[in-house]
């Protein structure tokens, strides 16, 4: 939601020009948010779930909130290897915005 995205930027002290990545519950969910038809068959399944952020072109009919990463036509997508986080993403029915725990500009 617009409110949730704005709250993340506020809490982090982050500029809206700094993009956020998203997390989805399953590799098969990525198509709802990004264009994958140009990728070699099986590539995403070989990388995800895991500690990888794949940067893809945002789909024209993407289910993402338009306020997420305005001005960017790409989106970083993760399917984490943590079952608990994937369950939360599945339960939400959409993608989760991701960021690190530190304030913007501070060491991780």
TrEMBL record:
Predominant location: cytoplasm
Enzyme class, first EC level, given as a word: transferase
E.C. numbers: 2.7.7.87
The keyword Cytoplasm is assigned to this record: yes
Cell compartments where the protein resides: Cytoplasm
YrdC-like domain mapped to chain residues: 1-108
Reaction(s) the record says it catalyses: L-threonine + hydrogencarbonate + ATP = L-threonylcarbamoyladenylate + diphosphate + H2O
Superkingdom in the source lineage: Eukaryota
Any one GO BP annotation for this protein: regulation of translational fidelity
GO MF annotations, alphabetized: double-stranded RNA binding; L-threonylcarbamoyladenylate synthase; tRNA binding
GO cellular component, one term: cytoplasm
Keyword terms, alphabetized: Cytoplasm, Transferase
Family as reported in the entry's similarity comment: Belongs to the SUA5 family.
Protein name: Threonylcarbamoyl-AMP synthase
